[in-house]
Amino acid sequence: MLSNLGLSYVLSKDLPKAEEVLRRAYGSARADARVRQNLALVIGLQGRFAEAESIVKADLPADEAAANVAYLKQVLNRKNASREGAGSLPVASLNRPE
């Protein structure tokens, strides 16, 4: 199924290819909520949050859709912050109890 193929591209970090495949699945008469959610995830992972939220709203109330996209933003921001900050921490501080 195209949705599964799209997710396999996500796992291999080829987001443009994942989006291409999921858009084909989205355009199909058989597209369901899972396809739409997967497409929204891929679009959100690429930083296009407003577009992702508009897709998610097809299946969720507006407040839930906004909350899902806000959560994705938080996860991506934490991931980016840890990437940027990891190189600046002294190695000894990584093993300190908190």
Strand content: under 5%
**What's the helix-strand series?**
HHHHH
What is the residue-mean pLDDT, rounded to a whole number? 86
Helix/strand class: mainly alpha
How much helix, percentage-wise, in residues?
A: 55-70%
What's the number of helices?
5
Query: Which outline best applies?
Result: flat
Question: What characterizes the major β-sheet?
Answer: none
Distance between the termini: 46 Å
Low-confidence stretches are 88-98
Cα Rg: 17 Å
Number of E-type strands: 0
Features of this protein?
single chain, 98 residues, mainly alpha, 5 helices, 69% helix, 0% strand, flat
Molecular structure report:
The protein is mainly alpha-helical and 98 residues long. The longest helix has 25 residues. The protein is flat, with a radius of gyration of 17 Å. The termini are far apart. The C terminus is likely disordered.
Give a short summary of the structure.
The chain is an all-alpha fold. The protein is built from five helices and no strands.
Q: What's the structural blueprint in terms of helices and strands?
A:
Blueprint: H1 2-11, H2 15-26, H3 33-45, H4 49-56, H5 62-86
